[in-house]
Amino acid sequence: MARITCEFFSDVLGISTSMTVLLPEAGKHRIGMAGSVERETYPVLYLLHGLSDDDSTWTRRSAIERYVAKLGLIVVMPNGYRGFYTNMQNGYRYWDYIAHEVPKIAEHYFPISKKRSETFVAGLSMGGYGAMKLALNFPERFAAAASFSGALDIAEHLKAEVPEGADPAVAAMLQALRQEQMNTFGSLEDFIGSENDLFAVAKSKTMSAEYKPRLYQACGTEDFLYQQNINFRDFIINETDLNVLYDEGPGAHTWEYWDVQVQKALQFFMGEPWK
Questions:
Q1: PANTHER family, per this entry (predicted)?
Q2: Which of 200, 191, 127 is nearest to 160 (CA)?
Q3: DSSP class of residue 85?
Q4: What's the alpha-carbon Rg for the chain, to the nearest Å?
Q5: Would the pLDDT of 170 be above 90?
Q6: Which domain holds residue 205?
Q7: Is 222 contained in some domain?
Q8: pLDDT tens-digit profile of 141-165?
Q9: How many folded domains does the chain comprise?
């Protein structure tokens, strides 16, 4: 694989930013690394990072480069900052950036297929939320999506109160996080029913059988977002006609868990032949 740090100017954000991109190589002589079949264009996985990370983190914390080497898959990892892939109530338009500008720029610079059947999105934690949000809002664009330890029930964040009697340092941290969430999503009333509310989008979006994304969701049973993932899984199964493959087991909010899950997601994405 070739690894490229693509630095570019974002008109949407008004700043210089970056994406890390893995490109297939057809070489046959690299020891320990398989090459891929050479094509004019390649399937693409948009792989999103978590709250405290950036576009380089997937390649530094996991073996994603090795996992995709033989698949002939381009992996685009944009810097999403701490924006929850959302047009903030008070801040930047990270949703317009990730949903529209990043794919347009990536397709301009790299040999990316524009076929829906060859377009996938995945992410961890905040990125898991972003991945599901993209697939549910744009089912005509994404064949499948995967979330690992996703922050999927944002309403629970907005409802959360600082526990009475909490350590002052912990209370200050929780209050700061809650304020950050409100700067991003607004009040609970602003959030419910909006394009940011995964539950509302999954319920209200009309999707034909042709444009119904396949969903993969995974969360460790020791993860602090475990209950959020149960809430989302049960809603998808009981309240929508979408299909979700859900995987859980021992694991916390760690790279040891996500490194395993991204391999499972790649197998899930390849479950149906690319056309």
A1: DIACYLGLYCEROL ACYLTRANSFERASE_MYCOLYLTRANSFERASE AG85A, ENTEROCHELIN ESTERASE-RELATED
A2: 191
A3: T
A4: 18
A5: no
A6: 2-152+196-269
A7: yes
A8: 999 999 999 999 999 888 877 777 7
A9: 1
